[in-house]
Write a structure and sequence with these properties.
single chain, 283 residues, alpha+beta, Uridine Diphospho-n-acetylenolpyruvylglucosamine Reductase, domain 2, Uridine Diphospho-n-acetylenolpyruvylglucosamine Reductase, domain 3, Enolase-like, domain 1, 3 domains, five-stranded antiparallel β-sheet, three-stranded parallel β-sheet, 11 helices, binds flavin-adenine dinucleotide
């Protein structure tokens, strides 16, 4: 049986990054919601664990001078679900966070851990794609920023390199409008079979993304362009077809690939119609 790896509780970001650079096979630990389960199942055997949860720089949500929002990587799902500053078009994020698993997982899991884990059924990836997020990464050597639509590269794979971690998610200034996350799952709190994230600004700008239908969230500038200029039934159907063409779903215990493909245009149309109805009710 594998022995327990050494656990380092880093008080500063610099120390955590130095440890990850110095110990081959060391992994960052956030809430442990997924990593500890994978270790218990024998799927991963880290040489050491470097906990990120006590690093003040990685905690909490801040609004910048230009109105943008920075969410620290170690911010818990429940904090995101309850933050009133994530409003208007950015409301897609708390709406998605509130639908993740149950209360225990939402109190443990972090946004940085979730996107680094990159399970295709997760709720944050499509929500962040619709919100126009940019991910900030750091290693002992450098920092860089990557648009969320380029962050996920394959099944459980991201652009993160060894020793590099997610330190924050940056959102543009929320616009007046609506953000909505529609999740279809077997039961409340299960991973998504298909999910659709929408941000619809009052000025007409719209961004859409689909989860659960391939290794990375489905999103395209062309689909965004269509729903930004025309919200008729035929335009929504066209955007739905474009996103379905990008899908690469699998058959699994939750649903077949064909069923997932069938849901994409239907759920997209429903999500955008719900957004339009919500816009009318707040106007
Ligand atoms: C029972 C259960 C049900 C769930 N249901 C859902 C659901 O319905 N929807 C949903 O979206 N999610 C769901 N999740 C996943 C949940 O959202 C977790 O928060 C998420 O997987 C990450 O957990 P964590 O933040 O604790 O990261 P950890 O478990 O600590 O880490 C996960 C992975 O990311 C790495 N990592 C952690 N932090 C960072 C970082 N800052 N930078 C780089 N790498 C990092 C770790 O090394 C590890 O490989 C569920 C999890 C469980 C256990």
């Amino acid at each position: 049986m594998a022995s327990n790896p050494a656990l380092f509780q880093s008080p500063t970001l610099t120390e955590a990054l130095d440890l990850l650079a110095a110990i081959p096979g060391a992994r960052p630990l956030s809430g442990g919601a997924s990593l500890v389960a994978m270790m218990n199942a024998g799927l991963v055997e880290p040489a050491a664990l470097v906990s990120l949860t006590r690093i003040p720089e990685l905690r909490g949500i801040r609004v910048t001078a230009d109105g943008g929002v920075i969410i620290g990587a170690a911010t818990r799902h429940n904090e995101i679900a309850a933050d009133p500053r994530l409003c208007g078009t950015a409301a897609v994020l708390p709406h998605a966070a509130a639908q993740i698993a149950g209360m225990a997982v939402r109190n443990m899991g972090t946004i940085g851990g979730a996107i680094a884990h990159a399970d295709p059924g997760l709720d944050f990836p499509p929500a962040l794609a619709a919100a126009g997020a940019v991910v900030e990464l750091a290693s002992a050597a450098a920092r860089r920023r990557v648009p969320i639509r380029e962050f996920f590269v394959d099944w459980y794979a991201t652009v993160l390199t060894p020793g590099e971690i997610v330190i924050a998610v940056h959102l543009p200034k929320p616009k007046p409008g609506v953000g909505l996350y529609l999740k279809h799952a077997r039961v409340s709190g299960d991973f998504a079979i298909v999910s659709v994230a929408v941000s619809l600004a009052r000025d007409g700008e719209a961004h859409v993304a689909v989860g659960g239908c391939g290794p990375v969230p489905l999103a395209s500038a062309e689909a965004d362009g269509i729903v930004s200029s025309d919200l008729s039934a035929s335009a929504l159907a066209h955007a739905g077809d474009l996103l379905t063409a990008l899908a690469n779903p699998v058959d699994d215990v939750r649903a077949t690939a064909d069923y997932r493909r069938l849901l994409i245009p239907r759920m997209l149309a429903r999500a955008l119609n719900d957004c339009m109805a919500a816009s009318r009710s707040v106007a």
